[in-house]
Amino acid sequence: MPKIxxxxxxxxxxxxxxxQQEIPDKKLGKPRSTRNFMPIIMIWLLCLLAMPIFAQFExxxxxGAQYSDNVFQLSEYDFDRFDAQHxxxxxxxTTDDLTLKxxxxxxxxxxxxxxxxxxxxxxxxxxxxxxxxxxxxDILARIAVKRYYWDFKLLYGYYPHSYVKDYVDTNGxxxxxxYSYSRNLYRADLNVxxxxxxxxRANFRYEEYFYNQHFTEYDGDAKTTGLxxxxxxxxxxxxxxxxxxxxxxxxxxxxxxNSSYESNIYTASIRLKEMPLDDSKKSPARWHPSxxxxxxxxxxxxxxxxxxGRIDKIYSTTAGINFKINNNWNILxxxxxxxRNIESTNASIxxxxxxxxxxxxxxxxxxx
Length: 368
Prior knowledge:
Blueprint: H1 38-49, E1 58-68, H2 76-83, E2 97-107, E3 110-112, E4 115-128, E5 135-146, E6 150-168, E7 176-195, E8 198-211, E9 220-232, E10 236-249, E11 261-272, E12 275-276, E13 286-300, E14 311-324, E15 329-343, H3 347-352, E16 355-367
Antiparallel strand pairs: 1-2, 1-16, 2-4, 3-4, 4-5, 5-6, 6-7, 7-8, 8-9, 9-10, 10-11, 11-13, 12-13, 13-14, 14-15, 15-16
């Protein structure tokens, strides 16, 4: 079987650990990126403006909040150190936190013969209330080509700032420093309907991670290939997928704790069909519940004493309810639980890396 490694901090969920110790609040070093995303976004906007005038914009605005009871994904050992006011946990003002979120989606659909084209942009912003270093400003540009029996999408995403926690900079200042990174995402998706109620899915994703000036030794890239199936039943919809992921830590120096890994990711979800919110036939309000589960097994590829032989088992479960109030408004409520168990010969890894986190989220979306 492949071996899995945990790569430093990755977006809600492909997060990576890094150095052995953690740190107090300091100013972030600017994440390094080899690409400037602005030219790409400007080209996308010019393409949108050049579209035929008979097409029109569609879009939505979402806003809401998410509560986490373990915002830094601390282990039980670190919770004890936080309670004891250990200096390596001084960066955490609180271990739980509330995150305010906003997202804007713009789509410019148009048709050409039997094809539907959908260039679109998505901008997402989030800000934590107590731990203010945790903020995000992300942007996605995509193009979709659709027909009845298939659709194809290309996507580019730029994530300029993702802050994980503080660690001791063992290769530089020797002090606690913000551990943050920027990320480039390139993705392609293909969906095919061989049968009226069956959809086969395939995707490929390539990501680049650039850590700030204190932790450049954790720079790397990830390649993920996925296959899935969606089956539409009279009362519900089932989804299942498998993904194979390889993270390659570019720094191969023997003194560095290499974080390269390979992982298997399994996901499954069920969503009930929309149901009336009340018995009134005149009311447009409808709702549907959903449940999803994912399991990732990461095998670290290094033989060093820190990550050598390490296996992470990461479980995520999400239950949600979506309320469609009318043609313009949706409200989403969900709860998710995230758990990471560790198998390792290193006692420090077993003590520092496991965690459990609960999240509760409420979002409202307005379609225009």
